[in-house]
Amino acid sequence: MSDDQRRVPAADVPEDAVLVDVREDDEWAAGHAPGAVHIPLGDLPARVGELPEGDVHVVCRSGGRSARAAAWLQQNGVDAVDVAGGMGAWYEAERPMVSESGQEPRVL
């Protein structure tokens, strides 16, 4: 990761932030932040036009995919911030989560 890449701990993501989850469908279904936008990493180049204007916070399971996605987005003119530690850190910070099944949300 380059020194100029922006990243923020999961606990410090603003409540009104646009959160883009780049995990796969099964990971998303198991548990994600309410209101997050789901765009799997492999789909991001084709779907970048779906992102809103302004800062987007990018999250994955542990931070690897989101760091790559945030770097790519920055190179393509999007104000992207990597969520350090991913959904694992989000869960540990006791940030809100929901699941698609209605069961207790979890991080896969």
From TrEMBL:
InterPro entries, alphabetized: GlpE_sulfurtransferase, Rhodanese-like_dom, Rhodanese-like_dom_sf
Domain Rhodanese, residue spans: 13-99
Record-linked Pfam families: Rhodanese
CDD domains registered for this protein in UniProt: RHOD (cd00158)
PANTHER family to which the protein is assigned, alphabetical: FAD-DEPENDENT OXIDOREDUCTASE, PYRIDINE NUCLEOTIDE-DISULPHIDE OXIDOREDUCTASE
Record's protein name: Rhodanese-like domain-containing protein
Species name: Pseudokineococcus marinus
The organism's taxonomic lineage, starting at the top: Bacteria, Bacillati, Actinomycetota, Actinomycetes, Kineosporiales
